[in-house]
Specification:
By secondary structure, the protein is α/β, with parallel strands linked by helices. The chain has helices at residues 13-20, 27-43, 59-62, 75-84, 120-126, 128-134, 145-153, 387-394, 400-411, 413-416, 422-435, and strands at 5-7, 10-12, 67-68, 92-97, 100-101, 115-119, 157-162, 172-179, 185-187, 190-195, 200-210, 215-225, 230-238, 244-253, 258-265, 270-279, 285-294, 299-308, 314-323, 328-337, 345-354, 360-369, 375-384. The strands form three sheets. Strands 3, 6, 7, 9, 10, 12, 14, 16, 18, 20 and 22 form an eleven-stranded mixed sheet that branches. It starts with a strand and ends in a 20-residue tail after the last helix.
Length: 455
């Protein structure tokens, strides 16, 4: 456990230090950490020669001497909480600053019927059997070095346990604040959501930045949905411009259950997101909606997997991307249908809007089907703003630049209007309005009917 990890020229000594000074933990967790570290030692970090990473060069992450972030609350972190808090719109709000639970900044509700929302450290004490049963069982580290790194490094996180039949109207908000300092720091937050049968809830993960320093967030989320559950999950990544962000989320969906994901990336310097949904129960359904707003030198890489294991499971996926400046965006989505997953009905769509000649989009939808009674489709379109639509708006008194902004703003409506959680939708709309010089009282949802005209 004190072995030092090296990756070519990089010496991540803080990993060995963290493991050496870690408190005594359950044997199963120590085993998970040792096995993850051994896998990381053996395989190292991926390069652009690896197929799954060929469009994303992570050398800025592996060559930066990140220090393990401390649990201290910073002024920048407190300011970020004030700015991004949901307030009374959330049933409870747990805050992690640099990967460590911040109780003074959180609003923990202990009176939610049948629901427990705890820090990982507290959950390991109060619900050890539940954590042992699920933690690290779905987000496998073999083949994913950043999951292995998170397994070895995480010291805190959040556990959400939805009991059988639990019903929650207001969302649970998990706010992760990254705060860089004079030296680059790294945080490895962990999230585990266990929803028992017949549970209904909405969960929001928000990742934001405070301060101007360089930092790295390496997040892993595992979600287990029992039978007849309904989970609405939102993920908003609005990290600082100097931040690196890598995330991995795996979802297990039971029989007759419904999982909905809304994922938006509007911040960060380099972002890599992996989302895998395993449909292991009959008549389950999944919906994946994604929005990427990238400009400047931003790099965003989204990989998704809809894995159909059982029969009669519909799934739908729509990802939209808006690129400006010299931004690069990658979308690699895959629909996988096992031979027993007959009657699968799955559709995947990727649409991209290029606002600059220097922006680059790589879209790679894929199907892998082993059943013979299915209906699966995928499609991808990439192009600039429709000049005919610009001319149409100009003929009605709208300036050229304003017309382009309006069409870009409307393009995102097909995603944002589907988000039912108002604070999430409002933040994306306000960001778009600020980026394109539009009044913030103009909502994307007002323009939703015209979103397809932008391509």
């Amino acid at each position: 456990m004190t072995q030092v990890l090296e990756d070519n020229t990089v010496h991540l000594s803080n990993l060995a230090v963290a493991l050496r000074h870690a408190p005594a933990e359950q044997p199963w967790l120590n085993k998970l950490r040792r096995e993850s570290l051994g896998c990381l030692d053996a395989n190292g970090f991926p390069t652009t020669r690896d197929e799954e990473w060929r469009f994303t060069n992570i050398s800025p992450i592996v060559r930066t001497r990140f220090e393990l972030a401390s649990p201290q609350e910073t002024d920048a972190g407190r300011q970020a909480v004030r700015e991004y808090s949901f307030g009374e719109d959330a049933s409870c709000e747990l805050v992690l600053v640099n990967g460590h639970f911040a109780p003074k900044l959180s609003r923990v509700n202990r009176e939610l019927p049948g629901i427990a929302v705890l820090s990982m450290a507290e959950a390991l004490q109060k619900k050890p059997a539940l954590i042992e049963q699920h933690l690290g069982r779905y987000a496998t580290f073999d083949g994913n070095p950043f999951v292995a790194l998170n397994n070895a490094m995480f010291r805190d996180g959040i556990v959400v346990h939805l009991g059988r039949g639990a019903m929650l109207k207001a969302p649970i908000h998990l706010l992760f604040v990254g705060s860089g300092g004079q030296r680059p720091v790294a945080a490895h937050p962990r999230v585990l959501v266990v929803a028992e049968d017949d549970a209904h809830a909405s969960i929001v993960e928000t990742y934001v930045g405070g301060g101007a320093g360089v930092y790295f967030t390496n997040a892993v989320t595992e979600i287990v949905a029992g039978d007849r559950t309904h989970l609405d999950h939102c993920r908003l990544q609005q990290e600082a411009a100097s931040a690196y962000h890598v995330s991995f989320m795996r979802v297990q969906v039971g029989c007759d259950s419904r999982f909905i994901s809304h994922a938006a990336t509007i911040g960060g310097k380099l972002t890599r997101n992996d989302l895998q949904v395993m449909m292991n129960g009959q008549r389950s359904s999944a919906t994946l909606n994604g929005l990427v707003l990238a400009g400047g030198e931003q790099h965003v890489d989204n990989h998704t997997l809809l894995h159909h294991e059982k029969a009669n499971c519909p799934s739908h996926e729509l990802y939209k991307h808006v690129l400006d400046g010299r931004a690069t965006v990658i979308f690699k989505g895959k629909i996988f249908v096992q031979k027993d997953a007959q009657k699968t009905d799955s559709k995947q769509t990727s649409k991209s809007l290029l606002l600059s000649d220097d922006a680059m989009m790589e879209s790679m939808p894929a199907l892998e089907i082993y059943a013979d009674d299915v209906k699966c489709t995928h499609g991808s379109t990439t192009g600039p703003v429709d000049e005919d639509m610009v001319f149409y708006l100009r003929s009605r008194g709208v300036g050229t630049q304003a017309a382009r902004h309006l069409l870009t703003y409307a393009f995102a409506a097909d995603i944002t209007r589907r988000i039912k959680i108002e604070p999430v939708r409002r933040r994306i709309e306000d960001f778009m309005a600020a980026q394109h010089g539009l009044p913030q009282d103009l909502r994307i949802t007002d323009l939703g009917e015209h979103d397809e005209a932008a391509l």
